[in-house]
Amino acid sequence: VIYAEISYIKYFKYIIDYELVLNYPLKKTLTGIKEEKKKIFTVGYMGSVSKERGAIVILDAVRNLRKEGEKIEVLFVGGVDDELLNLTKYKTAKEEGWADFKGRLEPMKGWAQMAKCQIGLAVLQNSPNFMESYPTKLFEYMLLKLPVITSNFPLYSSIIKESNCGILVDPSSASELGEAIKKIKREVIESIQMGENGRAIAVQKYNWETEFEKVLKFYNKLR
Length: 223
What we know:
By secondary structure, the protein is of the alpha/beta class. Helices cover about 50% and strands about 15% of the residues. It has eleven helices and eight strands. It has helices at about 25-30, 55-65, 80-85, 90-95, 105-115, 130, 135-145, 155-165, 175-185, 190-205, 210-220, and strands at about 1-5, 20, 40-45, 75, 100, 120, 150, 165-170. Strands 5-4-3-6-7-8 form a six-stranded parallel β-sheet, with helices on both faces. Strands 1-2 form a two-stranded parallel sheet. Strand 7 (about 150), helix 8 (about 155-165) and strand 8 (about 165-170) form a beta-alpha-beta unit. The protein is globular and about 60 Å long. The two termini are about 15 Å apart. About 35% of the residues are buried.
């Protein structure tokens, strides 16, 4: 059996012969993307844009920072959930122009948009599905050399602490997210180092090329 998530293994304890192959991004593809950063400090998110994936918390955090006088914008790459379309927060952010919703894009175009941002966000909300599985976007951000802000789930925490590539926050707290954004925005040298750290470890281990080697070894063992 080949498992696609660590959390699946505990449900099939009777399986003896297995391999864990995670959905990491292609190293060669993402490290080849070169884009100039946006002139206005921009935080970015790539994936389904929904409440459970942190869209409301992100909008609240950016709106609050702007009220404090911070020059900051937010970029969303991905389809917007119907639940958000009728919300005043969504409509206001879009009308005022500080939230850019790109919609669904081809992967290369989406990653190119993200590469223009200064921070990559993955503040998925408290859900068993999110808490027990890695968000692929986290490793995409790392390969794009973005400092990351992500949910303080134990699984995510191990990655951030190991690589020192970002900040962990309570995903339900707009104020905590806002403080993390301000910290990265103001500490320029440290934020650049976070991006470098993230890419270094993602190139080493958090990529599909590394996972594919595991697949080959597993198949060869069974032949």
